[in-house]
Every structure is written in structure tokens, then in C-alpha cells.
Amino acid sequence: MLFVDSRYVWESKPDGALAISEDTWNEPLGRGTEIRLHIRDEAGEYLEEKNLKRTAQLMYQAALFMLNDPKEFASRIYNSVKSSLSISPDAIIEEEDDVEEVET
């Protein structure tokens, strides 16, 4: 069993697009989680308590995933994000061209 011990940055756009990338530019935290919100003035609803709780819950759920199968891990993250954004499980979401394929 392999546990993920890297740092990741989660970024979202107003249209619902989400990007997760390894954090290579911030100082190491050691253990634990740090949440930084960079909110534009017109996106103030994301600072509402219910939205902050939903974001924290999503991050907590993602942190508990074990990386036995990277494709399963990616699928679980994807489904959690769709759920937290209230996107129907049956919705078809087009991928962006700049998404990097990862071989397993």
C-alpha cells in the first residue's frame, strides 16, 4: 500500500473547471494541511460557511484515498469533485486539450 505524501495545489475556475497539480513552489508544511483562498471580489459567495465546509470536506476525503491503483484514485477524486460541485453523475464533461495523460 502506498500513501501519497506530496503537496498538491487545487485550483478552480468560475466555470467549474478544477486543476490539481503538485506544489513545487511553496515552502514544505511538514505534516498537515494548509488552505489558502485567493478570492476575487465578485466571487465572495465562496467565503460563505457552507461553501468553505464543502471545500474542506472534499479535501479531507481526497486526503484519505490510498494509491493502490492511480486510475481508481483519479476516478474517486473526479467523482468527489463532481459531487461537491453538484454536478450530475451522468453529466458529460469535455476534457481540455492540455490535460496530461499519466501512464500506469
TrEMBL record:
Gene Ontology MF: a single term: ATP binding
Any Pfam family hit: HSP90
InterPro entries: HATPase_C_sf (IPR036890), Hsp90_fam (IPR001404)
Coiled-coil spans in chain: none
Superkingdom per UniProt: Eukaryota
Keywords carried by this UniProt record: ATP-binding, Chaperone, Nucleotide-binding
Family statement: Belongs to the heat shock protein 90 family.
Protein name: Endoplasmin homolog
Source organism phylogeny: Eukaryota, Viridiplantae, Streptophyta, Embryophyta, Tracheophyta
Gene name linked to the record: LOC105132951
